[in-house]
Design goal:
With 255 residues, this protein is α/β, with parallel strands linked by helices. It is built from nine helices and six strands; from the N terminus they run H-H-H-H-E-H-H-E-H-E-H-E-E-E-H.
Length: 255
C-alpha cells in the first residue's frame, strides 16, 4: 500500500473502528490466538460478574447525589439474586414492603419519574445511571416538568414499571436498567419509557433507548432521546409501538 497520505484507509482498520466485535483476529491453526482467547475469557468473566454484582448506592452514586435526590432502594418479590435469575416473574412485582415505602416516600402524579433497576448488570447501572440521572433531572427542569423522587429497585425486571405506575401515576415513567451483558461490554444500560404505565401494560406499550455505554449511545445522546420521547408521549397521550422517535439534528458543537 502506498505511503501517500491520500491513500484510502485500510478497510480492516475501518471495520475494527466501527465495531467492538472480534473481527479479523486471526487464528492459530483451528483455534483463536492466545491473546484473543485470553481477552475472550476476561470479557466473559466481566459479564458474569456484572450479572451477580449488587448496586451500592453510596459507592456507585456518591454521597452528594444520594443526598440531593434522596435516593433509596427497595426490592421486588425476588428475595435474592439467585432467585431473581431463576424466576423472572418475581422481578416484575414490588414486594409489600417496597410498595409501602414507595407510596409513603414518593410524591404521586409527577410529570417525569425516573426509576433505576439493577436488572442483569449492576456494572452498567454504576457506570451509566448516575450521569444519566443528572442529565434527565436537568432536562426536566428546563422544561418545567415536575420531577419524581427517584429510587433503586433491586432484582428488577422491566414489568415492575406497571407496579410503579399504579402506585405513583406519573405522566411519564423512565426505567434505567442494566442490560444483559455480552462479550463486547458489560456496561450497557437500557432506558424503558411508558406513558401512564399501569397493570396490564406490556412491552407493546413501552419504548426503549438501548445500548447506552461509552462505545454505544453516549449519555448526552441518551438523555436527548429519552426527553424527546417523553415530549412525544405528552403530546400524543400514549406510548408504545405506535410512537416513533422524531429527533431534531443536534446543535453545532454538541457531542
Amino acid at each position: 500500500m502506498s505511503d501517500d497520505a491520500l491513500s484510502p484507509r485500510d478497510p480492516v482498520e475501518a471495520l475494527l473502528a466501527r465495531t467492538p466485535a472480534r473481527a479479523a483476529v486471526g487464528r492459530a491453526g483451528p483455534a483463536y490466538r492466545t491473546a484473543t482467547w485470553l481477552k475472550l475469557r476476561e470479557d466473559h468473566a466481566a459479564a458474569r460478574d456484572a450479572v451477580h454484582a449488587e448496586v451500592d448506592l453510596l459507592r456507585d452514586f456518591g454521597g452528594e447525589r444520594v443526598a440531593r435526590f434522596a435516593l433509596f432502594d427497595v426490592r421486588t418479590c425476588a428475595t435474592s439474586k439467585a432467585e431473581y435469575l431463576r424466576r423472572p416473574d418475581l422481578g416484575r412485582r414490588l414486594d409489600d414492603n417496597a410498595r409501602e415505602i414507595v407510596r409513603g416516600g414518593c410524591p404521586p402524579g409527577r410529570d417525569f419519574q425516573v426509576v433505576i433497576g439493577d436488572g442483569l448488570s449492576a456494572t452498567a447501572v454504576a457506570a451509566q445511571a448516575p450521569g444519566l440521572l443528572d442529565r434527565l433531572h436537568a432536562a426536566a427542569a428546563d422544561r418545567g416538568w415536575s420531577f419524581g423522587r427517584p429510587f433503586l429497585v433491586r432484582y428488577c425486571r422491566v414489568g415492575v414499571m406497571n407496579d410503579v405506575g399504579d402506585l405513583l401515576a406519573p405522566a411519564v415513567l423512565v426505567l434505567l436498567v442494566g442490560e444483559r451483558p455480552g462479550l463486547a461490554t458489560a456496561e450497557s444500560l437500557s432506558a424503558y419509557l411508558a406513558y401512564r404505565p399501569r397493570a396490564g401494560h406490556t412491552d407493546a406499550d413501552r419504548n426503549l433507548v438501548s445500548n447506552v455505554h461509552a462505545r454505544g449511545v453516549g449519555l448526552d445522546e441518551a438523555a436527548r432521546r429519552i426527553v424527546a420521547l417523553a415530549e412525544r408521549f405528552r403530546a400524543l397521550g400514549r406510548s408504545g409501538v405506535g410512537v416513533t422517535e422524531v429527533l431534531a439534528p443536534p446543535a453545532l458543537g454538541d457531542g
